[in-house]
Design a protein that fits this description.
transmembrane helix, transmembrane, GntP family permease, Glcn_transporter, 19 helices, globular, gluconate transmembrane transporter activity, mainly alpha, about 450 residues, single chain
Length: about 450
């Protein structure tokens, strides 16, 4: 009965946003209440459980989501994102623009939401297409593939960050970053190949899409090392903090690196450094970045918290005990668990559109099972995060805001967006999961 109740709730979440046109927040909260009532949970504790689930997830990643959005706004308004892109394009040469755009997307997608990164860099798509005489569809899809690969697999974006928190390895974010980068590499090459082969003749709805836009002049852009710093500094500090524990650094080093390498402090340091990106009116321009970033992340915070509330209700039902007993009774191997994690996340992603919510929901179900199935070390649990992230790539279609960002900011028709973007996200998920399984065979 509980399985039927949960499946009915998932169907309701999908229909509430697609057919009934409810906001996803309403659909998730109503589904959480419905599961609680029909599963026989104590009525007087239901609201408390929902609020606790929302609040606990916000306490883990809420401030990091906000600060990540602020860094994205800084990269946009300072011209740093364009400078980063210019440097990488020169590094790879104009003969390989599609691969260069995938790499640009992969780098920018680490601290920045994929939709934000695409919006920031969509003008660059047009410039690169014009300068290299490559089809705009090829360039744009390469960028979107790169952004999506790291956005889904590499913290500090909310999906992998919240998944790591749910599974109890929030203190080992550096390990998740390192393995996430490894798992995302095949996806970057895949996006380059797929865009070059299948996006060359996509239909553009805007005939003027390849006209070169007006951007900051070269002398107005920040130096390359300053432009890279808001991206590189948090990643470097977080990674050092995690590996200080693994490599048994002196206690005082572990303490200070743990402080400086906490996602919150490292993000604040990156933002503090970013004042140097604005040679004039730095305070006023940074205030504008804060306003823009905070406004952008509001919906994301709400949906992440609502997913946490739904996950908290699922944790209180007997579903996890039933699944746990079934898994243990069937003597599930580690590889089989990774497959289950991948399939559950793929179902949630395809059904309700949000990559982050699908990762939150999936890890909420799996969290109580890991220890009993032998997944106890940070590396083993990180591989579960990778499997969940790979599943959460499959697939982006019309119930996903990312689908519409790629379509509308490139000028690709909906039909061709299905034929390119949607298929690419599915292939990326499969490639990432295959890489995860190889790593499990080597490291697990």
């Amino acid at each position: 009965m509980i399985i039927f109740i949960v499946l009915a709730a998932i169907v309701f979440i999908v229909l509430s946003s697609t057919v009934l046109k409810m906001h996803p927040l309403v659909g998730l909260l109503l589904a959480a209440i419905g599961v609680g009532v029909f599963a026989g949970l104590p009525i007087d504790k239901l609201a408390e459980t929902i609020g606790k689930g929302f609040g606990e997830l916000m306490s883990k990643i809420g401030l990091m989501v906000i600060l990540g959005c602020v860094i994205g706004a800084i990269l946009d308004k300072s011209g740093a994102a364009i400078k980063v892109a210019d440097v990488i394009l020169k590094l790879f040469g104009e003969k390989r623009p599609a691969f260069a755009m995938s790499v640009i997307g992969g780098i920018v997608g680490i601290p920045v939401f994929c939709d934000s990164g695409f919006i920031i860099l969509h003008k660059l798509n047009q410039i690169v297409a014009k300068r290299t005489k490559q089809p705009l569809g090829t360039i744009a899809l390469s960028l979107s593939g790169g952004l999506f690969a790291t956005h889904t697999l590499v913290p500090p974006t909310p999906g992998p960050l919240s998944a790591a928190g749910n599974l109890g390895i929030a203190d080992s974010v550096g390990v998740v970053i390192l393995i996430g980068l490894i798992v995302s590499i095949p996806s970057l090459f895949l996006s380059t190949w797929f865009a070059g082969k299948y996006a060359r003749k996509v239909e553009l709805t805007e005939t003027s899409a390849v006209e070169e836009p007006i951007l900051l002049r070269e002398e107005q852009l920040p130096p390359a090392w300053k432009a890279f710093m808001p991206i590189v500094l948090p990643i470097l500090l977080i990674t050092l903090a995690s590996f200080a524990k693994i490599l048994n650094f002196p206690e005082v080093w572990i303490k200070w690196l743990g402080f400086l390498g906490s996602p919150l402090v490292s993000f604040l340091l990156a933002i503090f450094f970013s004042y140097s990106l604005f040679p004039e009116y730095a305070a006023e321009r940074m205030m504008s970045c804060f306003k823009s970033g905070i406004e952008h992340c509001g919906t994301t915070l709400v949906l992440v918290g609502a997913g946490g509330a739904f996950g908290a209700i699922l944790k209180e039902t007997s579903l996890k005990e039933m699944v746990s007993q079934w898994l243990l009774h069937n003597e599930m191997s580690g590889g089989y668990l990774l497959m289950i994690a991948f399939l559950i996340a793929a179902f949630f992603k395809t059904a309700q559109g949000s990559t982050t919510s699908s990762m939150v929901l999936t890890t909420s179900i799996l969290a109580p099972l890991l220890a009993s199935l032998g997944f106890v070390t940070p590396i083993q649990i990180t591989l579960v995060v990778m499997a969940v992230g790979s599943g959460a790539m499959i697939v982006s279609h019309t119930n996903d805001a990312w689908f519409w960002v790629v379509s509308q900011f490139t000028g690709i028709s909906s039909r061709d967006t299905y034929r390119t973007h949607t298929i690419l996200t599915g292939l990326q998920g499969l490639a990432s999961f295959a890489t995860t399984m190889v790593l499990y065979w080597i490291l697990g």
